[in-house]
Amino acid sequence: MPRPPNPAHDEPPVTLTGREPLFIVFNGGSGNDDAMQTRSRIAALLRQSGRIHTVFTVDQPGQLPQIARMAVERAREANGVVVAAGGDGTLNAVAASVLPTGLPFGILPRGTFNCFGRTYGISRETDEAVASLLDARIEPVQVGLLDGRPFLVNASLGLYPQLLEDREAYKQMLGRRRWVALVSALVTLTRTPAQLALELIAQGQKRLLRTPTLVVCNNRLQLEQIGIAEVADLDDGRLVALAAKPVGTLALYGLLLMGAMGRLGDASRVVSFSFDTLTVRVRGNRGRVKVAMDGEISWTSTPLTFSVSPTRLQLLVPRDTSRLDRS
Question: Does the pTM exceed 0.85?
Answer without folding.
Answer: no
